[in-house]
Automatic annotation (TrEMBL):
Alphabetically ordered keywords of this record: Cell membrane, Glycoprotein, Leucine-rich repeat, Membrane, Receptor, Repeat, Transmembrane, Transmembrane helix
PROSITE patterns referenced in this protein's UniProt entry, alphabetically: LRR
UniProt-recorded name of the protein: Receptor-like protein 12
Organism encoding this protein: Gossypium arboreum (Tree cotton)
Localization annotation: Cell membrane
């Protein structure tokens, strides 16, 4: 899968013949395709449905001839490797159903040949890049990443960041979330009550002082007139 440079010309060489005689079935750009023979123009890596785990290795950037990469249904974790930006010929990338987290690297928008992208069923977050090929992908590319936002999703991003409600079914987290909400409401109510009492006391005290002063002045003349 590496480019073998012969002078200024880059050529691809398989070990053996010019093509494999064995047939193979490959998921290419989201479509399952059957190949009776594999020509050298097809450079594909399909490691899906295994138990690989850990971070996507940086060494993958050495395989610059990739056109199709499928690492779905594994246990890859951590952030999406920036090494993928060096695979300039990549046409299809499937990283779905892993445990990838963090933001989608905006550097991946430099993959201008990328026609199919699947990042669904991960733990990605933040805004989706809004340039080049990323403008062509649909909601299906990002399904089940509840902390992702921005087009093509209907979930909008804000400057502070998304505040997600507690997951359904987690009674303890839901209870803590409800208690924190009530605490905020009670604090606001108490502050408003104190401010209201202070204002009321000030107004009544001022009116009382004026009434006492008026009563004293009138008492010297005729108290009945001042009733």
């Amino acid at each position: 899968m590496m480019q073998i440079t012969n002078g200024d010309k880059a050529t691809l060489v398989y070990i053996g013949e010019d093509y494999y005689q064995d047939f193979v079935t490959i998921v290419n750009k989201g479509i399952e395709m059957f190949y009776q023979k594999v020509l050298t123009i097809l450079t594909c890596l399909d490691l899906s449905n295994n138990s690989f785990h850990g971070r996507i290795p940086e060494e993958i950037q050495m395989l610059r001839s990739f056109r199709v990469m499928n690492l779905s249904n594994n246990g890859f974790s951590g952030e999406i490797s920036l090494a993928l930006q060096n695979l300039k010929d990549l046409e299809s990338l499937d990283l779905s159903r892993n445990q990838l987290s963090g933001k989608i690297p905006p550097q991946l928008s430099s993959l201008t040949f990328l026609e199919a992208l699947n990042l669904s069923y991960n733990q990605l977050e933040g805004s989706i890049p809004q340039s080049n090929q990323f403008m062509t992908f649909t909601n299906d590319s990002y399904r089940r990443n509840p902390k992702l936002c921005g087009l093509p999703l209907s979930r909008k991003c804000n400057e502070v960041g998304l505040r997600m409600p507690p997951p359904l079914g987690e009674d303890e987290d839901s209870w803590l979330y409800a208690m924190s909400t009530w605490k905020i409401a009670l604090i606001g109510y108490a502050n408003g009550l104190v401010v209201g009492l202070c204002i009321g006391y000030t107004v009544l005290n001022e009116l009382g002082n004026k009434w006492v002063e008026k009563f004293k002045k009138c008492g010297k003349r005729n108290r009945r007139r001042c009733r």
